[in-house]
Amino acid sequence: MSLRDALRIPATEITDEAVYRDRRRLIAALAASTALALPGCAEADPPAPPRAPITPQQARSGFRTDETLTRIEDVTSYNNFYEFGTGKADPSKARKTLRTSPWTIAVSGECAKPGVLDQTDLLKGLTPEERVYRLRCVEGWSMVIPWLGVPLAAVLKRFQPTSKAKYVAFTTLADPRQMPGLVYRSIDWPYREGLRIDEAMHPLTLLATGLYGKPLPQQNGAPLRLVVPWKYGFKSIKSIVEIRFVEKMPPTAWNDLQPDEYGFFSNVNPNVDHPRWSQKTERRIAGTASKLFAERIPTRLFNGYAEQVAGMYKGMDLRKWF
Ligand SMILES: Nc1nc2c(c(=O)[nH]1)N[C@H]1C(S)=C(S)[C@@H](COP(=O)(O)O)O[C@H]1N2
Ligand SMILES: [Mo]
User: Fold this and answer.
1) Which residues form the Oxidoreductase molybdopterin-binding domain (predicted)?
2) Is 70 exceeded by the pLDDT of residue 244?
3) Per the count of CB atoms within 10 A, which of 35, 50, 70, 214 is most buried?
């Protein structure tokens, strides 16, 4: 498109909601539509850092995808973290009150070596690796995020779970002085999640410590959060303070709230609709500066990780165990 054409675009067309909300987007959109670089303009997107090509092994394991990354601006400003409020912009606006260091995690239950550890001791000797995962929220949007983290299995094994450890339960911090959203009873705090032990030990399950090569921002669940890429986003619990090995399926926050809408497993499944909306498609937060949402794309069984995880659910009726 020529500059002259670009200037003829009516304002109503370029100031759609996403652009209107974010001045950076408007400027970047104009730059893109006029194919003009904005030299020295601090508002333009910085060039993407070069990324190592994906090895066949990484692709086979599901550890990385070459899909377009969601921009860091969107990953860190469009969030669900109800402890900071229910609006998507609330967590990034209110994040500063969350103190992420020092941070201790209490590990207990069916294991030989329970303990209360500082985050640095919990991760000692483990080097965070990059994983580029799709994240599919149950609400029908998705992102592609380059996480940093360690396999959850590597951390859990240190506590030597016993044969009675059939499930792992996780709890988020619930401190009203640090989390302004706790005054609203949107959820029966603290936020709790759980995994079956084989899911917790699966190589795709990540204990994330960062994203885009940097420490995790508070709004994304600093200092430590789960990332379980084949399950709806709410299973990926943020700002974890407690891990328990348990024998029975543990209660979880969203399941407690609406058991017919949010199952314990919550594997991404386009064939099982949410009672109030279809799960067949999703809107990818796509990595373009001009528009927050791209066109709808089909949602994939297990969020595209069926090859890696379907075996864990063999013989299970995924409609019953949604
Ligand atoms: N403690 C806690 N963890 C949480 C949530 C939350 O509200 N509180 N929201 C969940 C939901 S619904 C999603 S989609 C993801 C969003 O993660 P992101 O903001 O890093 O993209 O976090 C999940 N983990
Ligand atoms: Mo979500």
Assistant:
1) 99-254
2) yes
3) 70
Give me ligand 2 centre to Cα 141, in Å. 8
233 lines ligand 1 (CB under 6 A): yes
φ and ψ at 62, to 5 degrees? 80, 5
| Per-residue pLDDT reduced to its tens digit, 179-205 | 999 999 999 999 999 999 999 999 999
Among 80, 86, 211, 243, the mutation site with the greatest number of ligand 1 atoms within 8 A of its Cβ is 80
Cα gap 91→82, rounded to integer Å? 8
Stated pTM of the model: 0.86
Q: Is 185 among the annotated ligand-binding positions?
A: no
Q: Using the 8-state DSSP alphabet, how is residue 175 labeled? A: -
Q: Is the dihedral of CA 93, 296, 149, 81 positive or negative?
A: positive
The position carrying tokens 């730059």 is 31
Q: What angle do CA 149, 152, 153 make, to 5 degrees?
A: 135
Domains detected in the chain: 3-313 (3.90.420.10)
